[in-house]
Amino acid sequence: MSATETLVATGNQAHSHGPGSPVPLQARNERTTSYDVADFPVPNGREEEWRFTPVKALKALFADEAGTETPKIDAYGPDGVVVESIALDTVKVLTPQDRIAAVAWTHAGAATAVRIPVEAELTEPVHVNVASLGGRGYGHLVIEAGRHSRATVIIDHTGSGEYGANVEIVVGDGAELRVVSIQQGDHESIHIGQHDAVIGRDAKLNHVTVTLGGKIVRLSTNVRYAGPGGDANLLGVLFAESGQHHENRLFVDHEAINCKSNVLYKGVLAGDHARSVWIGDVLIRAAAEGTNTFELNRNLVLTDGARADSVPNLEIETGEIEGAGHASATGRFDDEQLFYLQARGIPEDEARRLVVSGFFNDIIGRIGVPEVSEHLHDVIEQKLARTAELSAAAAKA
Amino acid sequence: MATLEIRDLHVSVDTENGPKEILRGVDLTIAGGQTHAIMGPNGSGKSTLAYSIAGHPKYNVTSGTVTLDGEDVLDMKVDERARAGLFLAMQYPVEVPGVSVSNFLRTAKTAIDGEAPKLRTWVKDVNKALTDLDMDPDFGTRNVNEGFSGGEKKRHEIVQLELLNPKIAILDETDSGLDIDALKIVSTGVNRFAEQGDKGVLLITHYTRILRYIKPDFVHVFVDGKVAEEGGHELADELEANGYERFLKTGAKA
User: Fold this and answer.
1) Structural domain boundaries enclosing A104
2) Which CATH topology does B3-253 take?
3) Each residue's pLDDT tens digit, B136-162
4) What ipTM was predicted for this assembly?
5) Number of structural domains found in chain A
6) Do the Cβ atoms of A277 and A309 come closer than 8 Å?
7) pLDDT tens, A63-77?
């Protein structure tokens, strides 16, 4: 990474980022949440939670109307896993935090539930394939991991339409659940999703978002703890290309004692108007003694014309914690790395691939699902080949 | 045997005040089997010469030629120069996060040879090269130059020199920042490379210290962007005794 990157100091105390640093307009827990669409005015783009998002392109999803299609949701898993359609308000772990989530809640019709039985230890992942068919549609998914179960659920989003969705995740006491959400819609697709998870006593959630396609993808992931000893690992990978807006908004709400959270999001951007946004909010409430949290966002900008915004926020209401920190760094592709590798005979394209796969290396190692890691590796190769072609064409022009 | 010929090389860099000429007509011939030392004061252009031969994009060659066995080096991309048989051991080796030394070495070797090295002998070769430079074989699993000490970075450069085994090696102040033990280890590695007989070495250094361990056939004093004087080892002895003062006066007149 180049010398332009910065590492924000970490420590157990809330700290200032100096005069002029952005201050959230309101504390994180004071934001509106509601099941009623009318409680959220149509955004104009100046609101704190919408200021990075191209709201003009989301007009249809803001309308309080039924969708024009029912997205195809196909879920299957190893024996014992229960897949069923349930009423929308069965679980209610999630409360919509913005207008699109409220519209999706209202118009999804029914929820698809994936239930991992108590004490089940799955050796194969559960697959949930969500295909948007080209119109506007809403989805609602519930993932419940029973007490002391172990499972991996892979949600694969494809297709070409506009998709608004809510995902409710319940991790039972002592359970370990891995949820991987892959966004690889067509170039014109839009996906606005809210994932809310509640983690039981001594339970662990590994939540992974992999965003590889779509004109606009905006995912809001919220995690809270139902009891002490919970552990949340929130990982994210994105590769935004020309004209794509990929946004991740995370909120970890520490209210229970002795819980952990670790957030690691990494993005690569290439091409004109490639855009990424990362918002990482962590709130440690007064009761949440013994909390240990760290969040890190890193972005690698490969070409001119791309932009990454990164906003970590940490609110701490008690000093009785183990640790709290955050860091954010965005750097340009380092030409000295390229020169060094080329000076050892490695052709330029391959050198770029090495540097980018090196950038993602630690996070890919932590995803923990070989089929996802391999797929990610392949798609990154394709994207880099495309970037190289575009650069070569631009150099000729 | 390989021959690297540099003829009337002029190189400039872009600055805020326009291009600035750093090399002002360098003539130098390095044939296989020879070790040349280029010595000179700070700012004389020694490193610019090394990076220009390797093809760093910061340096603009405004006139002159560089050929390797008659092939136009200046017309080659950076990686093509390396595959043609040139190697630059860098003064400041670059960190490449997330890329392991073993992956890096294998990728480079594959690129240089045009085919992947045989797995069984390759692992042995890498471990031997690391051990020869007094580096633990564990370095293979570490990221390239990340968290390496200054001395480890320099030794890693010589590990690469031995494994990639080019025709001509250019060593850019490989001795700077090394303690005496590391200097001996690095020198032994360079000598092992040179003793193959057909290899050319261009050793760029500010100090005479390394010349106690690597004996150059030719010494060139580099001042103000070109070779000011050439001789044998006795020239290095003179520099050891008197420093660069005599040449700096000459340089000021030019």
Assistant:
1) 28-332
2) Rossmann fold (3.40.50)
3) 999 999 999 999 999 999 999 999 999
4) 0.96
5) 1
6) yes
7) 999 999 999 999 999
